[in-house]
Amino acid sequence: MKIGVVALFPELVNQVFNFGVNRRARQLPDFSIEFIDLREYGLGPHKKIDDSPFGGGSGMVLQFEPLANCIRALRAKLPKAKVLLSSASGVPLKQSLVKEFAQESELILVAGRYEGVDERLVHREVDLEFSVGEYILSGGELALMVLLDSLMRLLPGVLGNQESLALESYSDSLLEYPQYTRPQEIENLRVPEVLLKGNHSEINQWRREQMLKKTLQRNPALLKSCIMSAQDQAYLSSLGYNQKQYGETS
After folding, report:
1. pLDDT tens-digit profile of 1-53?
2. Do 222 and 214 contact (CB within 8 A), yes or no?
């Protein structure tokens, strides 16, 4: 995979590769990433990249020309790249979307800032706007870091144990089951007995039920996109889950 990153503070985004398993991505033979400071494409002697919005209002807007020139320069190197823009008004970033991005051979990631970017730039150059949550950030660099961290985990060779990908939260539209480690008892709290018996069939069933239960309690909307067996549905019904209340399951 080849990635181009456009940001006002590219050195901040670069930090995501300095820690943990993400450092391995830089060592992959078919992976490369280039960071571009948007001000390199700024206009005039002061490298201007923003201006006040037409129609009035507070804040500043990133201008069309610097961003377009920067993205087009990257496109010359990455002709197959999809352009993704971090934006508070973008579609929510979900694991299913990250998996789609992981299938791309080239990506261009653009960090939004200020009050946003000139909409004509979005229309002309951007394939998708994405948001990492319903809250306000000072800039899109942190959003790009979130995306990159999630994306790098899906590249073969980054995680030591690829099996763990299939068991993580959101991998099957469900939240992950509870985890325990030694000692078996601490402050009068014991590890569930099923995990100590060594019966893998029972353990897998317990874990599945815990995933369903946690998802129902914390984010029941996820159940709408989960493929469930009759046993799963029976277990959820025993917990009071009503499909009509949350929508039909797949």
Report:
1. 999 999 999 999 999 999 999 999 999 999 999 999 999 999 999 999 999 99
2. no
Assess contact for 109 and 130: CB atoms under 8 A: no
- Is the N-terminal amide bond of 220 cis, ω within 30° of 0? no
For residue 55, the SS3 value is coil
Q: What is the pTM of this model?
A: 0.86
Instruction: Dig out the tokens for 144 from the structure.
Output: 């790009």
Enclosing H/E stretch for 32: strand 32-37
42-70 per-position pLDDT tens digit:
999 999 999 999 999 999 999 999 999 99
What is residue 54's three-state secondary structure? coil
Give, for 119, the enclosing helix (H) or strand (E).
Answer: helix 119-125
Q: What is the per-residue burial (b if ≥16 Cβ within 10 Å, else e) of 183-214?
A: eeeeeeeeeeeebeeeeeeebeebbbbbbbbb
Distance (Å, whole) CA 74 – CA 17: 21
Contact 115, 60 (CB under 8 A): yes
In the three-class reduction of DSSP (H, G, I as helix; E, B as strand; rest coil), residue 2 is classed as strand
Residue 246 is predicted with a pLDDT of 61
The first and second tokens of residue 201, run together, are: 């069939």
Give the Cα separation of 161 and 154 in Å (integer).
Answer: 11
